[in-house]
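Q: What would this complex look like in 3D?
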Amino acid sequence: MPLMNKFWIILSHTYMTKVKSKSFFISTALILFFIVAIANMNNIIELFSSEDKNKIAVIDESGVLFDPLNQSIESTNEDVELILYENSTDEAKEEVQEGELGALVVLSLDENEFPEASYYANNISDNSTESMLEQQIQQIKVVMATQKAGIDQQILADIYEPITFTKNALSEGAKTSEELNQARGIVYVMLFILYMAVMIYGTMIATDVATEKSSRVMEILVSSASPITHMLAKIVGIALLGLTQIILILAVSYVMILSKKDELTGGFFEYFGIQNTSVSTYVYGIVFFLLGYLLYATLAAMLGSLVSRVEEVQQLITPMTLLIIVAFMLSMVGINMPESNIITVTSFIPFFTPMVMFLRVGMLEVPIWEVALSLGLLIGTIALFTIIGARVYKGGVLMYGKSSSLKDIKKAIALSKKEK
Amino acid sequence: MSLVLNHVTKKFGNDTAVNNLSLEIPDSEMFGFLGGNGAGKTTTFRMILGLLDITEGNITWNGSKINYRTSDVIGYLPEERGLYPKLKVKDQLVYLGKLRGMTKSEVLTELDQWLERFKVPEYIDKKVEELSKGNQQKIQFISAVIHKPKLLILDEPFSGLDPINVELLKDAVIDLKNQGTSIVFSSHRMEHVEELCEHLCILHKGSPVVQGSLREIKQSFGKKNLIIHADMPLEFLKDYSGVLKYKKLAEGCELQIENEDLSQKIFSALQNKGFVRKFNLEEPSLNDIFIEKVGAAYE
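A: Here is my prediction, written as structure tokens for the whole assembly.
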């Protein structure tokens, strides 16, 4: 039988057994559930929040402050309702303690005829209500003070008018700050997906190889198909599994976005820049994603072939996990300062390239030769690891020992060597 | 059609696992590998399968090297159970069968027949981990032969089986041989090799110490076993020249003698001394040969 055929048999076996497995079903269902939940967050919050507005009692000792405060709060803040309270302060405090009132504000005028206020609530951790009230009272004070000084309200309005401040990048092709913000959002999302995918599927490959090895079925597998065919088929099979999951997630997200289009435009989407990011960012995203996956998957398969028992997998892939975490941390730092030296330098180190270089091309205008160089280094490293990995794999799958360590790489290569 | 090992040597670093092993296994033959633990049997099998590279010498099958293009005509039963514990018997064998070039329906037809033959048809939808060790071995055996290999390598096929199942598997092996499959198998159970193999090789620390056809090996060994049942004391035979070993039995004794001719002299010596109920000259058992050869190699 042609060797290619065996590749497909192993690939489809890997894919099908995983897709049909309970763990895949449960994890995918959970993720989809969360997406639907997040998309419907508004409805869910409404479901749990009480219909009542936050009632705040106001005792106005001055007699003139309640009306202007009430007016401005009514026009700006829908969630808060002010009530002019007629009874004594002590009674009001009691009602607050019993929970019938949200809070109590006592307004008065000081010796300069300016407003002052005391705020009472069961706890003062809900910062937003207090600061909102404080701001509104501050504004009333400003109005009162300027009136007293005889300043025209129009002049005041002019003073508070925000200035026009536009940021302009002079370097040709540099992104405008608006574009940069958008790029940051999409880069962030893609980095996160890459990080998760490499972590999850890398571990899955290593565990899978280790399982086949510890159950000794590997010896039969490598007697019917070459170790390199087996390794590559495994890597591609699990990649397809990952794609299946990602496509499912994207499809559900897309449907959610369509159905919630009106509610969701602006805010979130503008921040994450999904509305108008350049096509090149997506292309780079896919290229770096695939190459990043391949690099770490090869590494994972190689490490997985060294262990004798499945329990040892975690221990042996720790160095790989650390590399991924460092890459992710670097890119998280870099997302706020993409032009720093450390980001530029690390974007050429193959283990970090998929994340850090992607971050740079996503956010900056990187010379094409730099991208090409980093891609070249990355592909070269993948090729190198495939060759070493296949070697280690061939020896590793036949090697059984009490404990496994990275030193076994040497032993495994020696075992698969032609001449000694 | 034959498997030829030509001066094969395998070294791991400075350790020699297999040393200058040459043999030829003709078509439709069963060849036995004997040897203690660590003698190099599994290493030899892995080299035949191409899992390990050969340090010196070469191995050919029908005149050409064995590689992944020929793997569809080779069956392998490893010493340790090698199956997916979580997978159903059916899925398992469909996968392994496909890897040996079969289609799914071919696998299922063959699988039904084999399970029927081994009297376990109800296992088809069971997970391997739910089966007993002996039954797992049956499944393992089916996975090695389901694609009707031309060359079958069995590493300790009968270990962990009860006598009834050993017979079932032995019959299956003999049938395969009669259908033209060359079979190489290893065991440390002498009686299995004695019963099944025309040719054999005893490995000790990687080197072949005895090699050839079973009959030749026994003949060239020279020594014979003599069993005598008689009503008189036989202790005097212990000091008879040419008697190598003396073992007292309930009804007489068992002797190992230097050569066949000596039995005539003993026969004459026993005459007129009393009633002899049994006088039996036997070929040495493989066990005797193994202990002698490997024991000698130890010294």
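A: To summarize the key features: The mean pLDDT of chain B is 85. The CA atoms of residues 96 and 178 of chain B lie 24 Å apart.
Q: Very helpful, thank you.
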